[in-house]
Specification:
By secondary structure, the protein is of the alpha+beta class. It has helices spanning about 5-15, 40-45, 90-105, 130-135, 145-155, 165-175, 185-200, 205-215, 245, 255-265, 285-290, 345-360; strands spanning about 55-60, 65-70, 75, 85, 225, 250, 280, 295, 300-305, 310-315, 320-325, 330-335. A nine-stranded antiparallel beta sheet has the order 3-2-1-12-11-10-9-8-7, sandwiched between helices. Strand 11 and strand 12 (about 330-335) form a beta hairpin. The longest helix has 15 residues, at about 90-105. Residues about 1-15 and about 20-25 have low confidence and may be disordered.
């Protein structure tokens, strides 16, 4: 590999976002103080002197639902606006729901390897659908493609212009087999699931997901590449980008609260999504210190078995979010932020604190 290309790969690797679930980003000097902070304390610290901050928090406690919006210095804002946020990797949970639907319709079997659905090099061996869903396929988080260089230089979404043909070409060069791999969060794996869904339904992924979200789930403010919102710095996506299934959805608090309710209430569209498929024991030391656990995983959803709830987070260049739900006790938390994932205390930590607080008070 030429020296210039090596440099480009290194630069791009440093800025790719799409919210790896295991990443906790905040000022290291504050780590020892975070366990004692309340959820609201973390919002006040994160929004300190940020005039552009808009953090929306939704709580479900049994039959009660509350929504609050916070601005600079954690000031509670009085507003009727349902702000539009990028939800990053929460998109993956919706991709998983589409896979669940395809399974219920007999179109996909979780034990099938991906080459049953995609035209791939026959001499190679590939992981199963289940391993893609659980991030145990052996695939990396992403693989470098040429558009990533210009995207970085132009301040654009790093995955913009990475086409489905590029993804298929990369798949044809991989030979990870169907062996046993540990948990490795993979945007590439979910991009591959998008191709599988297109293959079995004969439609492009954006159409599939938008129809599913609006028609089946009834979420009217949620969808792919809806970038005409009231906030700033939304990511661009080109039609047919391969990584759309990993992180291209935008939404608002009303829809995300409704989404949490559907997940808790045994809605037919989610079936096995929240059921454990594999033990992963993937909690980092930082997560464990804040009682944030990744013990097992279902179809996309992380399962905190110690505390009894499912969760996922998401992040793009300028947004990060968190959604958790405890179906047994009818508790849920949604945190949507227009601040970058690596800025001070992320939504994952704030959201987990809210979940701990409402759990102590019961449903």
């Amino acid at each position: 590999m030429k020296k210039s290309k090596k440099k480009a790969v290194a630069i791009t690797a440093g800025v790719l976002a799409l919210a790896a679930v295991g990443a906790v980003a905040f000022m290291k000097s504050k780590l020892d103080k975070i366990p004692e902070m309340t959820a609201l304390d973390t919002i006040k610290y994160t929004t300190k002197d940020r005039a552009d901050a808009v953090v929306t928090v939704g709580l479900i406690q049994g039959s009660q639902m509350t929504v609050k919006v916070y601005g600079q210095n954690g000031e509670e804002l009085v507003t009727d606006t349902n702000h539009i946020y990028e939800v990053g990797s929460l998109t993956k949970t919706m991709t998983a729901a589409l896979v669940n639907r395809a399974c219920s319709e007999g179109l996909i079997d979780l034990n099938d390897t991906v080459d049953k659905y995609l035209k791939l090099t026959p001499s190679n061996s590939y992981p199963t659908i289940e391993k893609l869903l659980t991030h145990t396929s052996g695939f990396r988080g992403y693989y470098f493609e040429k558009p990533m260089i210009s995207n970085h230089l132009n301040g654009r979404n790093d995955f913009y212009g990475v086409s489905k043909d590029m993804l298929l070409n990369r798949l044809n060069k991989l030979n990870t087999g169907n062996g046993e791999y540990g948990f490795k969060y993979s945007n590439f794996g979910y991009a591959t699931l998008g191709l599988v869904l297109e293959s079995v339904y004969g439609k492009d992924y954006t159409t599939l997901l938008n129809d599913f979200i609006s028609g089946d789930l009834g979420l009217g403010h949620t969808g792919i590449s809806k970038t005409k919102g009231d906030l700033d710095n939304y990511w661009d996506w080109a039609d047919g980008d391969a990584y759309i299934p990993a992180g291209a959805v935008t939404s608002d608090i009303e829809d995300m609260m409704r989404y949490a309710q559907l997940l808790m209430n045994d809605d037919e569209h989610f079936g096995r999504c929240r059921e454990k498929l594999k033990m992963i024991n993937a909690s980092s030391g930082m997560y464990k210190s804040m009682d944030i656990n990744m013990d097992s995983i279902g179809m996309g959803w992380m399962i905190d078995e110690k505390n009894g709830y499912c969760w996922h987070n998401g992040g793009t260049g300028d947004y990060n979010c968190y959604l958790a739900f405890d179906a047994e006790n009818q508790l849920a938390v949604v945190v949507l932020s227009n601040l970058p994932p690596a800025y001070r205390i992320p939504a994952t930590v704030t959201g987990a604190k809210y979940m701990q607080e409402i759990s102590r008070h019961g449903g």
